Give the backbone structure.
Amino acid sequence: MAAIDAQGVTITYENNLSAAQTVGGVVSFSGLDGEAADIDITNLASTAKEFKQGLQDFGNFSMEVIRDYDDAGQAALLDAMDNQATREMVVTLPSGTLNVITFQAYVKSVTLEGAVDDIVRGTINLKISGEPVAS
């Protein structure tokens, strides 16, 4: 199995003109953490609980960033949050097969964090809507 370096990953988010903006200052990311719903199909003849898989929820996507209010990608995310807009996000891995993951998402929250002997950071949390596509 070939490992994929995280260094070199790019993340873009659409601005209000449907143009992709690279999100700058990304330190780390995580996501696609959802799971399918469980549908209870137990009936009076059942001898144990029975379930059927429901629709897949692809969960969330979050990024820790070094905050930069002049960065076009971070500005696009803030604009989308202000306007309650769902927009396209693209995560491009630096190598591998099916290394481009595209999905629709809206911004749930943006935090602002700072400490002594550190820089201003933040976490941007998004909710994935629909099914991601790997290409």
Remarks:
- The first strand starts at residue 10 and ends at 14.
- Residues 72-82 form the longest helix (11 residues).
- The chain has a mean pLDDT of 95.
